Amino acid sequence: MASDLAERVDALEGRLDELVVCLSHSWGGLEQVAAQDAVDRAALGLKARALVLEGSPIHQNLTQRNSGVVPVPLSFRPRDLLDFRLKGELERLFASGVNVVHTHQTTLLGTLIPWMWKHPQVSAFASRHIINNHDKRDFIHRLLYGRLDYLLVMSQTLRENVMATHPLRERQVKVVNLGLDFSVFDPDRVDPARQRAAWGADPETLVIGLVGRIDPAKGQATFVRAAAGVIKALGDRAKVKFVMVGEETLGRASNHLGELKEMVQQFRLEDHVVFAGYQENIPEVMRSFDILVMPSRQEAFGLVAIEAMAMECPIIISRGGSAAEIVGEEEYGLLTRPEDAFDLQRQLRHLIDHPEVRAEMGRKARAHVMAHYDRQVRIERTLELYNRALRRRKILN
Asked: What is the pTM (predicted TM-score) of this model?
Protein backbone atom coordinates (compact mmCIF):
# COMPACT_ATOMS: atom_id res chain seq x y z
CA MET A 1 0.00 0.00 0.00
CA ALA A 2 2.81 2.42 0.88
CA SER A 3 4.47 1.84 -2.50
CA ASP A 4 1.15 2.42 -4.32
CA LEU A 5 0.67 5.70 -2.47
CA ALA A 6 4.23 6.79 -3.28
CA GLU A 7 3.60 6.07 -6.95
CA ARG A 8 0.41 8.13 -6.96
CA VAL A 9 2.13 11.06 -5.25
CA ASP A 10 5.06 10.88 -7.65
CA ALA A 11 2.73 10.94 -10.65
CA LEU A 12 0.83 13.98 -9.35
CA GLU A 13 3.53 16.02 -7.61
CA GLY A 14 4.01 19.37 -9.32
CA ARG A 15 1.05 18.64 -11.61
CA LEU A 16 -2.02 18.40 -9.41
CA ASP A 17 -3.58 21.72 -8.39
CA GLU A 18 -6.75 20.82 -6.50
CA LEU A 19 -9.59 23.03 -5.36
CA VAL A 20 -11.71 21.47 -2.60
CA VAL A 21 -15.11 23.17 -2.36
CA CYS A 22 -17.07 23.25 0.90
CA LEU A 23 -19.32 26.29 1.35
CA SER A 24 -20.83 25.49 4.72
CA HIS A 25 -21.18 27.27 8.05
CA SER A 26 -21.54 23.97 9.92
CA TRP A 27 -18.82 21.80 11.43
CA GLY A 28 -20.04 18.24 11.17
CA GLY A 29 -18.88 15.07 9.50
CA LEU A 30 -19.10 16.44 5.95
CA GLU A 31 -17.01 19.50 6.73
CA GLN A 32 -14.48 17.56 8.78
CA VAL A 33 -14.02 15.00 6.00
CA ALA A 34 -13.58 17.75 3.38
CA ALA A 35 -10.98 19.52 5.52
CA GLN A 36 -9.07 16.38 6.47
CA ASP A 37 -8.95 15.11 2.89
CA ALA A 38 -7.42 18.38 1.72
CA VAL A 39 -4.96 18.41 4.63
CA ASP A 40 -3.88 14.83 3.92
CA ARG A 41 -3.07 15.63 0.30
CA ALA A 42 -1.23 18.83 1.22
CA ALA A 43 0.83 16.85 3.76
CA LEU A 44 2.07 14.70 0.88
CA GLY A 45 3.43 17.77 -0.88
CA LEU A 46 0.53 18.08 -3.32
CA LYS A 47 -1.00 21.46 -4.07
CA ALA A 48 -4.39 21.89 -2.41
CA ARG A 49 -6.64 24.91 -2.10
CA ALA A 50 -10.04 25.12 -0.43
CA LEU A 51 -12.94 27.32 -1.52
CA VAL A 52 -14.75 28.15 1.75
CA LEU A 53 -17.03 30.77 3.23
CA GLU A 54 -15.10 33.51 4.97
CA GLY A 55 -15.08 33.00 8.74
CA SER A 56 -16.75 29.57 8.56
CA PRO A 57 -15.57 26.74 10.85
CA ILE A 58 -13.77 24.98 7.98
CA HIS A 59 -12.03 28.26 7.07
CA GLN A 60 -10.94 28.73 10.68
CA ASN A 61 -9.84 25.10 11.00
CA LEU A 62 -7.65 25.16 7.88
CA THR A 63 -6.13 28.50 8.90
CA GLN A 64 -5.47 27.70 12.55
CA ARG A 65 -3.87 24.30 12.03
CA ASN A 66 -1.35 25.65 9.48
CA SER A 67 -2.36 22.75 7.29
CA GLY A 68 -0.58 23.53 4.05
CA VAL A 69 -3.97 23.94 2.38
CA VAL A 70 -4.46 27.43 0.91
CA PRO A 71 -7.93 28.73 1.86
CA VAL A 72 -9.79 30.73 -0.78
CA PRO A 73 -12.45 32.53 1.32
CA LEU A 74 -15.64 33.83 -0.24
CA SER A 75 -17.41 36.80 1.35
CA PHE A 76 -20.75 35.64 -0.12
CA ARG A 77 -22.76 32.42 -0.38
CA PRO A 78 -23.20 31.70 -4.12
CA ARG A 79 -26.58 30.91 -5.57
CA ASP A 80 -27.13 27.25 -6.41
CA LEU A 81 -27.39 28.04 -10.12
CA LEU A 82 -25.27 30.32 -12.32
CA ASP A 83 -23.76 32.69 -9.79
CA PHE A 84 -21.76 35.25 -11.80
CA ARG A 85 -19.73 36.42 -8.80
CA LEU A 86 -18.53 32.86 -8.36
CA LYS A 87 -17.75 32.68 -12.08
CA GLY A 88 -15.21 35.45 -11.72
CA GLU A 89 -13.51 33.70 -8.80
CA LEU A 90 -13.38 30.39 -10.66
CA GLU A 91 -11.94 32.00 -13.79
CA ARG A 92 -9.15 33.47 -11.68
CA LEU A 93 -8.45 30.09 -10.09
CA PHE A 94 -8.44 28.24 -13.41
CA ALA A 95 -6.06 30.85 -14.84
CA SER A 96 -3.73 30.29 -11.87
CA GLY A 97 -3.53 26.54 -12.56
CA VAL A 98 -6.40 24.76 -10.77
CA ASN A 99 -7.04 21.53 -12.68
CA VAL A 100 -9.24 19.52 -10.27
CA VAL A 101 -12.41 20.87 -8.66
CA HIS A 102 -13.77 18.59 -5.93
CA THR A 103 -16.99 19.70 -4.26
CA HIS A 104 -18.37 18.05 -1.14
CA GLN A 105 -21.80 19.59 -1.76
CA THR A 106 -23.58 18.35 -4.87
CA THR A 107 -26.06 21.24 -4.52
CA LEU A 108 -23.26 23.47 -5.83
CA LEU A 109 -22.87 21.62 -9.13
CA GLY A 110 -25.41 23.97 -10.73
CA THR A 111 -23.14 26.94 -10.14
CA LEU A 112 -19.78 25.17 -10.61
CA ILE A 113 -20.24 22.98 -13.68
CA PRO A 114 -21.56 25.65 -16.13
CA TRP A 115 -18.39 27.70 -15.63
CA MET A 116 -16.25 24.60 -16.27
CA TRP A 117 -17.62 23.67 -19.70
CA LYS A 118 -15.16 25.96 -21.49
CA HIS A 119 -12.30 24.55 -19.38
CA PRO A 120 -12.12 20.92 -20.55
CA GLN A 121 -8.69 20.55 -18.97
CA VAL A 122 -10.23 20.83 -15.47
CA SER A 123 -11.45 17.59 -13.89
CA ALA A 124 -14.70 17.67 -11.93
CA PHE A 125 -15.25 15.56 -8.81
CA ALA A 126 -18.04 15.50 -6.26
CA SER A 127 -18.49 13.61 -3.00
CA ARG A 128 -22.02 12.76 -1.90
CA HIS A 129 -22.44 12.46 1.87
CA ILE A 130 -26.22 12.07 2.22
CA ILE A 131 -28.96 9.80 0.97
CA ASN A 132 -30.94 11.25 -1.95
CA ASN A 133 -34.74 10.99 -1.87
CA HIS A 134 -35.48 12.68 -5.23
CA ASP A 135 -35.23 11.55 -8.83
CA LYS A 136 -32.52 13.67 -10.47
CA ARG A 137 -32.62 12.03 -13.90
CA ASP A 138 -34.02 15.08 -15.69
CA PHE A 139 -32.41 17.01 -18.54
CA ILE A 140 -30.68 19.65 -16.39
CA HIS A 141 -29.14 17.11 -14.03
CA ARG A 142 -28.01 15.01 -17.00
CA LEU A 143 -26.06 18.02 -18.26
CA LEU A 144 -24.52 18.71 -14.85
CA TYR A 145 -23.62 15.15 -13.88
CA GLY A 146 -22.45 14.34 -17.40
CA ARG A 147 -19.52 16.75 -16.85
CA LEU A 148 -18.37 14.91 -13.70
CA ASP A 149 -15.32 12.69 -13.96
CA TYR A 150 -16.31 10.84 -10.78
CA LEU A 151 -18.85 10.98 -7.99
CA LEU A 152 -17.38 9.55 -4.77
CA VAL A 153 -19.52 7.92 -2.09
CA MET A 154 -18.53 6.39 1.24
CA SER A 155 -20.57 3.19 1.25
CA GLN A 156 -22.13 0.61 -1.03
CA THR A 157 -25.55 1.70 0.24
CA LEU A 158 -24.91 5.25 -0.96
CA ARG A 159 -23.67 3.94 -4.31
CA GLU A 160 -26.88 1.98 -4.84
CA ASN A 161 -28.92 5.05 -3.88
CA VAL A 162 -27.02 7.27 -6.32
CA MET A 163 -27.28 4.80 -9.19
CA ALA A 164 -31.05 4.56 -8.68
CA THR A 165 -31.67 8.33 -8.56
CA HIS A 166 -28.93 10.08 -10.58
CA PRO A 167 -28.12 10.25 -14.31
CA LEU A 168 -24.70 8.65 -13.88
CA ARG A 169 -22.86 5.83 -15.60
CA GLU A 170 -21.55 2.91 -13.56
CA ARG A 171 -17.94 3.92 -14.14
CA GLN A 172 -18.54 7.43 -12.75
CA VAL A 173 -19.58 6.33 -9.24
CA LYS A 174 -16.84 5.04 -6.95
CA VAL A 175 -16.93 3.88 -3.34
CA VAL A 176 -14.10 5.43 -1.34
CA ASN A 177 -14.48 4.50 2.31
CA LEU A 178 -13.86 7.00 5.06
CA GLY A 179 -10.51 6.55 6.77
CA LEU A 180 -8.97 7.02 10.21
CA ASP A 181 -5.42 7.44 11.44
CA PHE A 182 -5.04 4.45 13.76
CA SER A 183 -2.01 5.94 15.49
CA VAL A 184 -4.45 8.59 16.79
CA PHE A 185 -7.52 6.37 17.18
CA ASP A 186 -5.74 3.81 19.36
CA PRO A 187 -7.47 2.81 22.62
CA ASP A 188 -4.17 1.73 24.16
CA ARG A 189 -2.78 5.26 23.84
CA VAL A 190 -5.70 7.04 25.47
CA ASP A 191 -6.48 7.28 29.18
CA PRO A 192 -10.18 8.14 29.59
CA ALA A 193 -9.99 8.88 33.32
CA ARG A 194 -9.61 12.68 33.02
CA GLN A 195 -12.44 13.07 30.56
CA ARG A 196 -14.79 10.83 32.52
CA ALA A 197 -14.02 12.73 35.71
CA ALA A 198 -14.92 16.00 33.95
CA TRP A 199 -18.37 14.53 33.31
CA GLY A 200 -18.75 13.40 36.92
CA ALA A 201 -18.30 9.72 36.07
CA ASP A 202 -16.25 7.50 38.37
CA PRO A 203 -14.87 4.13 37.18
CA GLU A 204 -18.11 2.34 38.13
CA THR A 205 -20.33 4.73 36.18
CA LEU A 206 -21.58 3.69 32.76
CA VAL A 207 -21.20 6.51 30.24
CA ILE A 208 -23.54 6.57 27.25
CA GLY A 209 -22.66 9.18 24.66
CA LEU A 210 -24.03 10.98 21.63
CA VAL A 211 -21.77 13.08 19.36
CA GLY A 212 -23.20 15.46 16.77
CA ARG A 213 -24.43 18.96 16.21
CA ILE A 214 -27.46 19.92 18.28
CA ASP A 215 -30.24 19.50 15.76
CA PRO A 216 -33.69 17.81 15.78
CA ALA A 217 -32.55 15.51 12.95
CA LYS A 218 -29.71 14.13 15.11
CA GLY A 219 -32.13 12.60 17.62
CA GLN A 220 -31.04 14.22 20.88
CA ALA A 221 -34.68 14.41 22.04
CA THR A 222 -35.06 10.66 21.47
CA PHE A 223 -31.84 10.19 23.43
CA VAL A 224 -33.21 12.16 26.41
CA ARG A 225 -36.50 10.24 26.40
CA ALA A 226 -34.63 6.92 26.30
CA ALA A 227 -32.40 8.14 29.15
CA ALA A 228 -35.50 8.86 31.24
CA GLY A 229 -36.76 5.34 30.65
CA VAL A 230 -33.44 3.75 31.51
CA ILE A 231 -33.05 5.72 34.75
CA LYS A 232 -36.60 4.90 35.80
CA ALA A 233 -36.08 1.19 35.10
CA LEU A 234 -32.74 1.00 36.93
CA GLY A 235 -33.95 2.94 39.96
CA ASP A 236 -31.49 3.35 42.84
CA ARG A 237 -28.79 1.34 41.07
CA ALA A 238 -28.61 3.81 38.17
CA LYS A 239 -24.94 4.79 37.99
CA VAL A 240 -25.26 6.08 34.44
CA LYS A 241 -24.30 9.32 32.70
CA PHE A 242 -25.80 10.37 29.38
CA VAL A 243 -23.37 12.74 27.64
CA MET A 244 -24.23 14.90 24.62
CA VAL A 245 -21.21 16.28 22.75
CA GLY A 246 -21.88 19.01 20.21
CA GLU A 247 -23.24 22.50 19.70
CA GLU A 248 -25.86 24.17 17.54
CA THR A 249 -24.96 25.17 13.98
CA LEU A 250 -23.34 28.60 13.79
CA GLY A 251 -25.76 31.30 12.70
CA ARG A 252 -28.87 29.10 12.73
CA ALA A 253 -31.96 30.61 14.37
CA SER A 254 -32.77 27.73 16.69
CA ASN A 255 -33.06 27.04 20.37
CA HIS A 256 -33.10 23.27 20.24
CA LEU A 257 -30.43 23.18 22.94
CA GLY A 258 -32.75 25.13 25.24
CA GLU A 259 -35.59 22.74 24.44
CA LEU A 260 -33.40 19.76 25.32
CA LYS A 261 -32.39 21.32 28.64
CA GLU A 262 -36.07 21.87 29.47
CA MET A 263 -36.75 18.21 28.70
CA VAL A 264 -33.96 17.17 31.06
CA GLN A 265 -35.51 19.28 33.83
CA GLN A 266 -38.99 17.91 33.17
CA PHE A 267 -37.71 14.33 33.45
CA ARG A 268 -35.58 15.29 36.49
CA LEU A 269 -32.42 14.01 34.82
CA GLU A 270 -30.09 16.83 35.87
CA ASP A 271 -27.83 14.40 37.77
CA HIS A 272 -27.61 12.02 34.83
CA VAL A 273 -27.40 14.16 31.64
CA VAL A 274 -24.33 16.20 30.68
CA PHE A 275 -24.27 18.80 27.90
CA ALA A 276 -20.58 18.71 27.04
CA GLY A 277 -20.54 21.20 24.15
CA TYR A 278 -18.08 21.01 21.29
CA GLN A 279 -15.05 18.78 21.89
CA GLU A 280 -11.91 18.46 19.78
CA ASN A 281 -10.38 15.50 21.67
CA ILE A 282 -12.54 12.95 19.85
CA PRO A 283 -10.35 9.85 20.45
CA GLU A 284 -10.41 10.56 24.20
CA VAL A 285 -14.15 11.25 24.10
CA MET A 286 -14.88 7.97 22.32
CA ARG A 287 -12.65 6.03 24.69
CA SER A 288 -14.53 7.58 27.61
CA PHE A 289 -17.87 6.22 26.39
CA ASP A 290 -19.06 2.72 27.24
CA ILE A 291 -21.72 2.97 24.52
CA LEU A 292 -22.18 5.44 21.65
CA VAL A 293 -25.71 6.16 20.43
CA MET A 294 -26.56 7.57 16.99
CA PRO A 295 -30.37 8.06 17.03
CA SER A 296 -30.54 10.26 13.90
CA ARG A 297 -33.64 10.29 11.73
CA GLN A 298 -31.45 9.31 8.80
CA GLU A 299 -27.66 9.10 8.61
CA ALA A 300 -26.08 8.27 5.26
CA PHE A 301 -22.88 7.25 6.99
CA GLY A 302 -21.74 8.39 10.42
CA LEU A 303 -18.07 9.32 10.75
CA VAL A 304 -18.54 9.26 14.52
CA ALA A 305 -19.64 5.62 14.27
CA ILE A 306 -16.30 4.40 12.95
CA GLU A 307 -14.45 6.75 15.31
CA ALA A 308 -16.20 5.11 18.26
CA MET A 309 -15.70 1.61 16.87
CA ALA A 310 -11.98 2.28 16.41
CA MET A 311 -11.80 3.03 20.14
CA GLU A 312 -13.53 -0.30 20.97
CA CYS A 313 -16.82 1.39 21.81
CA PRO A 314 -19.98 -0.50 20.77
CA ILE A 315 -22.63 1.56 19.03
CA ILE A 316 -26.41 1.74 18.75
CA ILE A 317 -27.44 3.35 15.47
CA SER A 318 -30.76 4.15 13.83
CA ARG A 319 -31.81 1.90 10.97
CA GLY A 320 -31.59 3.35 7.47
CA GLY A 321 -28.82 4.77 5.35
CA SER A 322 -25.64 2.73 5.73
CA ALA A 323 -26.40 1.62 9.30
CA ALA A 324 -26.67 -2.09 8.49
CA GLU A 325 -23.45 -1.86 6.50
CA ILE A 326 -21.67 -0.31 9.50
CA VAL A 327 -22.72 -2.85 12.13
CA GLY A 328 -22.80 -5.94 9.89
CA GLU A 329 -24.96 -8.71 11.34
CA GLU A 330 -25.08 -6.64 14.56
CA GLU A 331 -21.57 -7.87 15.34
CA TYR A 332 -20.18 -4.38 15.96
CA GLY A 333 -23.29 -2.62 17.27
CA LEU A 334 -27.06 -2.71 17.46
CA LEU A 335 -29.79 -1.20 15.27
CA THR A 336 -32.73 0.80 16.57
CA ARG A 337 -35.81 2.31 14.98
CA PRO A 338 -35.44 6.05 14.25
CA GLU A 339 -37.24 8.38 16.67
CA ASP A 340 -38.35 5.41 18.81
CA ALA A 341 -37.22 6.09 22.38
CA PHE A 342 -38.70 2.82 23.64
CA ASP A 343 -36.73 0.76 21.14
CA LEU A 344 -33.56 2.70 21.93
CA GLN A 345 -34.18 2.14 25.65
CA ARG A 346 -34.57 -1.60 24.99
CA GLN A 347 -31.26 -1.79 23.13
CA LEU A 348 -29.50 0.25 25.80
CA ARG A 349 -30.79 -2.05 28.53
CA HIS A 350 -29.44 -5.05 26.62
CA LEU A 351 -25.92 -3.61 26.53
CA ILE A 352 -26.11 -2.25 30.08
CA ASP A 353 -27.15 -5.65 31.41
CA HIS A 354 -24.54 -7.59 29.39
CA PRO A 355 -21.07 -6.06 29.86
CA GLU A 356 -19.45 -9.10 28.25
CA VAL A 357 -21.44 -8.40 25.06
CA ARG A 358 -20.25 -4.78 25.08
CA ALA A 359 -16.63 -5.83 25.45
CA GLU A 360 -16.76 -8.40 22.66
CA MET A 361 -18.65 -6.05 20.38
CA GLY A 362 -16.04 -3.34 20.96
CA ARG A 363 -13.12 -5.64 20.15
CA LYS A 364 -14.77 -6.84 16.94
CA ALA A 365 -15.68 -3.28 15.99
CA ARG A 366 -12.08 -2.07 16.14
CA ALA A 367 -10.83 -5.01 14.07
CA HIS A 368 -13.52 -4.34 11.45
CA VAL A 369 -12.73 -0.63 11.21
CA MET A 370 -8.99 -1.26 10.94
CA ALA A 371 -9.60 -3.67 8.07
CA HIS A 372 -11.90 -1.38 6.07
CA TYR A 373 -11.45 2.26 7.08
CA ASP A 374 -7.75 3.09 6.91
CA ARG A 375 -6.96 6.70 6.05
CA GLN A 376 -3.99 5.79 3.87
CA VAL A 377 -6.20 3.58 1.73
CA ARG A 378 -8.66 6.47 1.31
CA ILE A 379 -5.86 8.83 0.24
CA GLU A 380 -4.38 6.31 -2.19
CA ARG A 381 -7.75 5.52 -3.76
CA THR A 382 -8.63 9.21 -4.24
CA LEU A 383 -5.27 10.00 -5.81
CA GLU A 384 -5.67 7.02 -8.13
CA LEU A 385 -8.95 8.52 -9.39
CA TYR A 386 -7.41 12.00 -9.72
CA ASN A 387 -4.63 10.42 -11.76
CA ARG A 388 -7.11 8.66 -14.06
CA ALA A 389 -9.15 11.80 -14.59
CA LEU A 390 -6.16 14.00 -15.38
CA ARG A 391 -4.76 11.41 -17.79
CA ARG A 392 -8.11 11.26 -19.55
CA ARG A 393 -7.97 15.05 -19.89
CA LYS A 394 -4.34 14.77 -21.04
CA ILE A 395 -2.94 16.77 -18.13
CA LEU A 396 -0.64 13.88 -17.24
CA ASN A 397 1.38 11.76 -19.65
From this structure: 0.89
